[in-house]
Amino acid sequence: MKEQVLNKSAAASPLGDGTTRRIALFGxxxxxxxxxxxxxxxxxxxxxxxVLTAYSNDELLIEQSLRFNPNIIVIxxxxxxxxxxxxxxxxxIKIFAGEKALEEVASMDCYDxxxxxxxxxxxxxxxxxxIGNGKSVALANKETLVVAGDIIMRKAVENRVPVxxxxxEHSAIFQCLVGEMRNKIEKIILTASGGPxxxxxxxxxxxxxxxxxxxxxxxxxxxxxxxxxxxxxxxGLEMIEAxxxxxxxxxxxxxxxxxxSIIHSMVQFEDGSIKAxxxxxxxxxxxxxxxxxxRRIPNTFPRYDFKKYxxxxxxxxxxxxxxxxxxxxxxxxxxxxxxAVMNAANExxxxxxxxxxxxxxxxxxxxxxxxxxxxxxxxPTLEEYFESDGMARxxxxxxxxx
Length: 402
Ligand code: NDP
Ligand code: MG
What we know:
globular, four-stranded mixed β-sheet, 46% helix, binds magnesium ion, binds NADPH dihydro-nicotinamide-adenine-dinucleotide phosphate, seven-stranded parallel β-sheet
């Protein structure tokens, strides 16, 4: 049965036999989702939009539906269902609402590849369903692997489902590994821009406000990941994401600050040779690579010019100031349910910071206290990951008095 599904998706590949790859875009109204639709619009003979999902942005979901004519859409917020239904009444698009519907649609057979671009823990269950359903996953939603990476990757292997990274660093590593499958990785070097507060110290960070933290120097992204980039939690999440994607030990994963964001990450092999993937910072490139994998397809995105930007610099991350990265390294090393607990506390802390309920440095305290409080489980079941997430959320919300 699974074989048949895999063969069917291979046959539906755009990149060979002229048929289109049917994309289920989970989180279509977000930053990744919107850029993915630009890529799809530019390559309409290769990709078709089968599924679109949003949570609250009904207007954009309606607009996208009218433009891309998907088979199915889901609006997460059930209160918006009626409005979406009325706006699309002249079409034959099937419309569902609510969290359960996200899982149900992920279990359907009408698509070939899910682009997982929901933000946070909410993206986990649809990804689990897609993998269980034998569908390829292009994964932007890193929190999925942070929470339950061992289970996700095990299920992907069991179901012979490719998990293709969209996160630019992981896409870089994935690209560096093409043709190297028999060669052992000595280590990977994840690059980090350092975010808007690179070089700043705690006495500065204590006064940082939401608007300032939302200004990323190199990337234009959704609010949650932009704050994670400012605290360096994003790089911590990415270390854990890399551990599972590439089956590495924690000590094989190094972070280096590279403020220009031109080298997107590197792999060092056993002979000391280092491969890097480079380019201007533009998420459309890793999105396109994941959608079209294993092919590269042409585009007209701006190119990197060595004459124009000719200085690339590297430095150590400042773990004393950006303590979230240190907490994530602890979670990576100890494993078990600790990354899930940390992720949940971080989601609550970022939510509170975005609503001006806690200051920038308080976010770290909330995460640290929650990591100390929730009981450690060395080898959690999926149910225990869910429970750990719930406990951590409640504890962190109590600390902040949300
Ligand atoms: P955004 O906040 O821009 O978009 C998030 C998407 O998820 C929106 O479509 C949103 O719907 C939907 N969503 C939010 N909450 C829920 C929920 N509870 N249930 C269902 N859907 C929900 O995020 P980004 O696009 O920036 O990021 C998406 C993922 O990709 C994240 O995991 C992020 O870490 C990762 N990523 C993002 C990068 C970037 O450049 N943006 C780079 C690398 C990774 P709505 O807007 O309708 O409410
Ligand atoms: Mg990244």
